[in-house]
Write a structure and sequence with these properties.
Elements: H1 12-19, E1 38-44, E2 50-55, H2 58-68, E3 83-91, E4 95-102, E5 113-117, E6 126-130, H3 132-139, E7 149-155, E8 160-165, H4 171-181, E9 183-185, E10 195-200, E11 203-207, E12 216-220, E13 233-236, E14 242-246, E15 252-257, E16 263-268, E17 272-280, E18 285-292, E19 297-301, E20 306-309, E21 330-333, E22 342-346, E23 350-355, E24 360-366, E25 371-376, E26 382-388, E27 396-403, E28 408-418, E29 431-432, E30 437-443, E31 452-458, E32 462-468, H5 474-484, E33 492-497, E34 506-511, E35 515-520, E36 525-530, E37 534-537, E38 543-548, E39 555-557
Parallel strand pairs: 7-13, 17-39, 28-30
Antiparallel strand pairs: 1-2, 1-3, 3-4, 4-5, 5-6, 7-8, 8-11, 9-12, 10-11, 12-14, 15-16, 15-38, 17-18, 18-19, 19-20, 21-22, 22-23, 23-24, 25-26, 26-27, 27-28, 29-30, 30-31, 31-32, 33-34, 34-35, 35-36, 37-38
């Protein structure tokens, strides 16, 4: 049955014609039109590829029984969609094709899945309801014999959490688990009343209606049980057992926020994986490079808000590339001269000079070990490369300076350090302070009380100095703790003082797992800026910060 090319929406015209008429579901019993003496049933993905075929046996019998007892449903206008599948049911003398929309992980409040059919001679299609258990049996019969598992899907647009399980869910245990763990972060709400909708015994939609703007809710589901009393192993679409619901539409990207906490401008970057901050000294601006999960790279100037797609195509076999743990396979760096070319560390191994005027690439340097960071000097004469010191993807990196032709000028062993376990390919910040001086990170070392600093190297002479990163003054730290608790001090990841404020009265801090805050000593206020790390201050005293209403995070690479 290795059939391809079957159109899963073959009945689209019939379904659309039904939309204006309201579809089925008029109270009459409308049985699924199955062929006689069914011998097999196959489920297909949206491309028409067979995912699984069920032949004669208990599984096929149970699937057929579920279809025979499926209640009639309606076809909406518009009809809600989920994950589409095709279904081919083969009888002794006839084969019939159906469409399925699996709504199990959508915010559908009245049905878990739908089956569609369009029969010859009928002007409109028909629809039936299917259960979560039936869909699980169709897609993976072994799931019901595996350990009890509960999957939580966060649907940000409707402020909902959708729970699906491979056992019947004890609904009361869901209510008790949420009531016992609910944590609300909001300036406008002290409580939230969840609504529970059971579409079948294995699926529950938990909604939080009418949340005030900016509200964030956290809950845990570890105590949820099946009706047989088994405690579920909990998985979440957010990647951990803690479930977070953020009020409002699903959105991820950069916001420009003023010192009152108001968003002045925003730009969505839904696919961003890593944000690299680089200095362009000729224009006294810090350009931002945004590396996306699909391999595209954007160059953003936060002051002007100009953005350009700088992705270089045609690198050959993508499987041969090296990738960081963020999924980044290339690092880009630009000199000051706008008419000049730029450099790309392709596959995190080879540095190329790219000339966009004639669309050429020239290999200039091959690193013996994996590249952690790369930056070209403002005048374009030298490239600084940070590479794994011990070829074990450990925390220590060597600094190598090569010229524009790829000739090695200087090598400074063990120049940089970012604390992490072996085997993690992280991207390190490396920045030229001027045409002669390059800065590299010293993160997680005991050399500084804050464990965060940088080392400055002259490209020929070597180490010049080591500097600790900015830290909150005592008054600002006390203000932060008064608002967020004593534990906030231990959660500070980085601190960005306003570079345009000579009196040093405003500080932006990033708190691990919590977000970014502005601490203002003049007004005595602590203002939340966003869910992610701060990127930079602009010259007009706006803060560019990563924010996501759907819990997406990015790695931010830069030196304070």
């Amino acid at each position: 049955m290795a059939r391809k090319g079957i159109l899963l929406l073959a009945m689209a015209a019939a379904i659309l014609s039904a939309c204006s008429l309201g579809g089925a579901g008029d109270g009459k019993r409308d049985r699924v039109p199955l062929p006689e003496n069914v011998v097999s049933m196959a489920v297909l993905d949206r491309e028409g590829v067979v995912l699984r075929e069920h032949l004669e046996g208990d599984i096929l019998r149970r699937l057929l029984q579920g279809m025979k007892s499926a209640p009639s449903s309606y076809i909406g206008d518009p009809e809600q969609s989920g994950e589409p599948y095709g279904l081919v049911v083969r009888g002794a003398k006839q084969t019939r094709t159906f469409d399925i929309q699996d709504m199990g992980r959508t915010n559908s409040l009245d049905v878990s899945a739908k089956l569609y059919a369009a029969l010859p001679g009928e002007e409109r299609g028909r629809a039936w309801e299917l259960s979560t258990e039936w869909m699980q049996l169709l897609l993976d019969p072994a799931a019901e014999k595996a350990e009890a598992e509960l999957f939580a899907t966060v649907e940000e647009d409707s402020d909902s959490v959708i729970l699906t399980a491979n056992r019947d869910i004890d609904a009361e245990s869901v209510r008790e688990a949420i009531q016992g763990s609910l944590l609300i972060r909001s300036d406008a709400a002290s409580s939230a009343k969840p609504e529970y909708k059971l579409t079948d015994s294995r699926r529950i939609v938990v909604r939080f209606p009418d949340l005030p703007k900016g509200t964030q809710i956290q809950l845990r589901l570890d105590e949820v049980k099946s009706k047989e009393g088994e405690r579920f192993s909990v998985r979440s679409s957010q990647g951990d057992g803690k479930v977070t619901v953020r009020q409002g539409r699903a959105w991820s990207g950069l916001r420009w926020v003023d010192t009152d906490g108001q968003t002045v401008y925003e730009h969505g970057f839904d696919a961003a994986a890593l944000i690299q901050i680089a200095r362009d000294s000729a224009v006294e601006d810090r350009a931002v490079l945004i590396y996306n999960r699909d391999g595209t790279v954007y160059r953003l100037f936060p002051e002007s808000r100009d953005i350009h797609d700088v992705t270089v195509q045609g690198w050959g076999d993508p499987e041969a590339k090296g990738y960081s743990d963020d999924g980044v396979g290339s690092l880009y760096s630009f000199p000051d001269a706008t008419e000049a070319g730029f450099y790309v560390a392709q596959g995190l191994k080879t540095v190329y000079y790219v000339n966009p005027s004639n669309d050429t690439k020239r290999s200039i340097y091959d690193s013996e070990s994996s590249i952690y960071g790369m930056a070209v000097s403002p005048d374009g004469r030298h490239i600084a490369v940070l590479a794994d010191s011990e070829s074990n993807l450990g925390p220590i990196a060597d600094l190598t300076i090569v010229d524009a032709q790829g000739e090695t000028g200087s090598t400074f062993p063990q120049a940089a350090y970012v604390g992490h376990s072996e085997g993690w390919h992280l991207i390190y910040p490396v920045e030229w302070i001027d045409a002669d001086t390059v800065a590299v990170p010293l993160f997680g070392t005991p050399e500084f009380p804050s464990s965060r600093g940088k080392a400055l190297f002259h490209y020929r002479q070597g180490l010049l100095s080591k500097e600790e990163a900015p830290v909150l003054p005592e008054a600002a730290l006390a203000l932060l703790q008064s608002e967020l608790g004593e534990a906030a001090a231990a959660q500070i990841v980085c601190t960005l003082p306003d570079p345009n404020d000579e009196q040093a009265r405003d500080y932006v801090v990033s708190l691990s797992g919590i977000g970014s805050y502005l601490v203002g000593l003049d007004d005595g206020k602590v203002t939340r800026l966003g869910a992610g790390e701060p990127i930079m201050w602009t010259s007009d005293r706006q803060i560019v910060v990563w924010d996501s209403t759907e819990g997406k995070s990015v790695s931010v690479v830069g030196l304070e």
